[in-house]
Amino acid sequence: MTETETAARTPGEGPLSGVRVVELAGIGPGPFAAMLLADLGADVVRVDRPGGPGLGIDPARDVTNRNKRSLIVDLKSPEGPARVLDLAERADVLIEGYRPGVAERLGVGPGHCHARNPRLVYGRMTGWGQDGPLAQRAGHDIGYIALTGTLGMIGAPDAPPAVPANLLGDYAGGSLYLVVGVLAALHHARATGTGQVVDAAIVDGTAHLSSMIHGMLAAGGWQDRRGANLLDGGCPFYGTYETADGRYMAVGALEQRFYAEFMELLGIPGLAPARDDMARWGELREAVAARFASRTRDEWTAVFADSDACVAPVLTLREAPHHPHLAARGTFTDHGGITQPAPAPRFSATPTTVRTGPARPGGDTDAVTRDWDLPRVPEPNSRPAP
């Protein structure tokens, strides 16, 4: 796709059409948050650094940069900060994921940006937050969720805590909370004319995700250990079971009527211990496991199809797009030869779509300069990636 075609297709779709966002390039939750804003229709300009990010993948396949445009700015060069401030002056939102104080030292902190644009929403994405004893320390998802107590909840009681990729911390506790904060601050800015700083810390968001569990803990309905509770795999009718072919089925038959249907289709009604007798949950689990081990995953999938037993096959990443329900809804989409999740959620009046593939570093310099009416200055290494 040419630069002109990218520019023509970027604005104009989704509920955030007309919102301008500057993303100071980083890795992990910041780019994902900016992708979500771009999916919703915002004109997101990613300010890439010369040489690219430290943990970068092939830019042509980094779908977290879809629906965005890119230019390259060296913030350590004499003219770099001014270039970013020119963007901030014309933007509604700016997102950065540096350690606390770095943006200020580079000359693009909230004070610098608000001096040029008082309405700007300045979103800050970090693991530890802007203050506190660990604020200046390096970290990654696994460490952030470890301190919040959420990592310790996940996994079997006789094994180390299970690592949930970087979905719980980076993206759920980080990106999604940054987006919520940015949109709330944008609403306030448009109502009052006053921008503000959004401090989105992964530790804060991840802790917030466990609110219900803390309520259950206080009420005596949750034990502070793995594999001993209703929703953490301790319950034999809420968990996963291996099938005859070494694959797995997921069971979530919590309510009595769903449990009754589950046991009927599983083929052991009346033969297993009562579901409410927690002292015999181990025995119940063994009975359920033995039944699942007698057939393949696909055979059990057929058994539970069109039922309310709350049982589903555990699919792989490559299998998921082909599931009939997800295929019918278009939960996944193909764009530029890459199968990827489609934008979510869905809107009746302002539908979203994957408009463009991943932005190539520096590939949209001329178009952004024109569309945002920026001063024309030379940029380092600004030719599109091959």
Strand arrangement in the largest pleated sheet: 3-2-1-4-5-6
N- and C-termini, Cα separation? 12 Å
Strand content: 5-15%
Helix content: 25-40%
Q: What would you say this structure looks like, in words?
A:
With 386 residues, the protein is an alpha/beta fold. Helices cover 35% and strands 14% of the residues. It contains 14 helices and eleven strands. It has helices at residues 3-9, 29-39, 80-90, 102-106, 110-116, 141-148, 167-192, 202-209, 211-218, 256-266, 281-292, 297-304, 324-329, 365-371; strands spanning 20-24, 43-48, 68-72, 93-96, 121-126, 196-201, 238-242, 248-252, 311-313, 332-335, 338-341. Strands 3-2-1-4-5-6 form a six-stranded parallel sheet, sandwiched between helices. A three-stranded antiparallel sheet has the order 7-8-9, covered by helices on one side. A hairpin with a 2-residue loop joins strand 10 (332-335) and strand 11 (338-341). Helix 1 crosses helix 14. The longest helix has 26 residues, at 167-192. The radius of gyration is 24 Å and the shape is elongated.
List keywords for this structure.
386 residues; six-stranded parallel β-sheet; elongated; disordered C terminus
Summarize the structure.
With 386 residues, the protein is an alpha/beta fold. It has 14 helices and eleven strands. The strands form three sheets. It has a six-stranded parallel β-sheet, with helices on both faces. A three-stranded antiparallel β-sheet has the order 7-8-9, covered by helices on one side.
